[in-house]
Amino acid sequence: KKTLKKHPPKKKKKQKTKKINGTLGMGVHTNTHDTLFFYILFIFFFSSSFKIESLSLAGNNITTLEYFKACAEAHNLLGFVRNLDLSNNRIHSFKEVEHLKPFKLSEILMRGNPIATNLDEYAKRILTRLPTVQLVDRNNVVALRTSIKPKLPQVKASFYFMNGTQDLAFNFCNQYFKALDEQKFESDLLEAYAPDSLFTLTISRDLAIGYGVRAERILKTLRETSHNLCQLKNEAAPAKTVVKGRLYCLNVLREKVYGGMKTAHELSLFNVDSVQLQASLTTPTVVVTIHGVCEFSVSMNTAGGGKECKFKRCFDRTFVLQASPPNSSWPAVITNETLHLRPFKDPPVMKEGSDPDQPPDLEKAKHIALTKIVSETTNLTLEYAEMCLQAADWDPTVAQQLFLQQKDGLPPNAWKDGVKPN
């Protein structure tokens, strides 16, 4: 018989455990309790496939909200949460609330925390940090927003440094925008720019250009041309989107800014500031800044022509003007120009002769009601719902057909909360 040798049991090697020491490996430091709690929360949401909209973390002795920011940066965890219950915790500072900025919360519960004392007072401080919140501790706080918004000064009339600059600004704007609306780029506008002139374009992030596939192509081109330094593509090479030379300026205006669109500028709605720079400059220089409204028309067809969608957009435009060469038809030439396009708001000035006490516009009220209905039934934003109705001549049936044809090609900002419905 073979005897089996008894081997002593192997000693198990102690596994090296990584000490947390109050950090989750995401640059966040706090006490061990909060670390472990949010570590478990992080793992749960990382492995979960659910889009959680309501989250209750009440009564967990939480002292910091730093990890919420970390969760937002890591695969956009908790990105769908709209209702957050943090009641009965130990949050002592409103600075902690700032970590919730990446989330579009509509409701937050904070009662039972040291910072939750007087409702109106701490609700205002929450609203200044979380602008999307509508309910605080189940109380509607939308009305409080008006009290925390900074009071803006009233819109003043156009300002001119001296009579000479007023005449120059008026004559130049009248000639420039007339040529622009008539699309006389080579025949007229080319002469309005100095040979080494500069041009930059910026657009608001929520800007929309018409409705349909062709309008979305135009908007994509505008975004690619934008000089917005907050965009990642412009951070590394900010000078790349600065257009240099009048031929290139005209080409960008014709092909990218106004390509495929007709424009109509109403000079009576312009608000103009005009200032002459210091006389020490070798060449007299006048800076003209314009805040105005422009009506755009863009074709619904991909190839152009056919039915048009009309809409208004606001713009801010600054011209740096210098003396024009002899025998020029222009009162001055552009050496530097910046253009910013943004969504349409109320005109900066009222039309002359308008009566503030006139009866309400019933047709406008009908359009507003139709826009809300289309927005609710399609999940489109109010702006895109209005453009859809405009393209359909305010016929809801035709608007529904257009929506079904175009919905697959609409951008994320066309939908409420940026989420396309299934």
Query: What integer is the average pLDDT?
Result: 75
Uncertain segments are 13-31, 346-360
Q: Number of helical runs? A: 11
Following the backbone from N to C, one meets helices and strands in this order, namely: HEHEEHEEHEHEHHEHEEEEEHHH
Radius of gyration: 29 Å
Question: What does the largest sheet look like?
Answer: 8 strands, mixed
Assign an overall shape.
globular
Q: How many strand elements?
A: 13
- Ends distance: 74 Å
Briefly note the structural class of the backbone. Answer: alpha/beta
Proportion of residues in β-strands: 15-25%
- Helical content class: 25-40%
List descriptors:
8-stranded mixed β-sheet; 422 residues; 11 helices; 5-stranded mixed β-sheet; alpha/beta
3D architecture notes:
The structure is a single chain. This protein is an alpha/beta fold and 422 residues long. Helix content is 30%, strand content 19%. It is built from eleven helices and 13 strands. It has helices spanning 32-47, 66-73, 119-129, 145-148, 163-181, 213-225, 232-235, 246-257, 362-378, 382-391, 396-406; strands spanning 54-56, 83-85, 107-109, 135-136, 139-140, 159-160, 193-203, 243-244, 261-265, 271-276, 285-299, 308-323, 332-343. Strands 6, 7, 8, 9, 10, 11, 12 and 13 form an eight-stranded mixed β-sheet that branches. Strands 1-2-3-4-5 form a five-stranded mixed β-sheet. A hairpin with an 8-residue loop joins strand 12 and strand 13. Helix 10 (382-391) crosses helix 11. The longest helix has 19 residues, at 163-181. The chain is globular. The termini are far apart. The relative contact order is 0.08. Mean pLDDT is 75; it is low at 13-31 and 346-360.
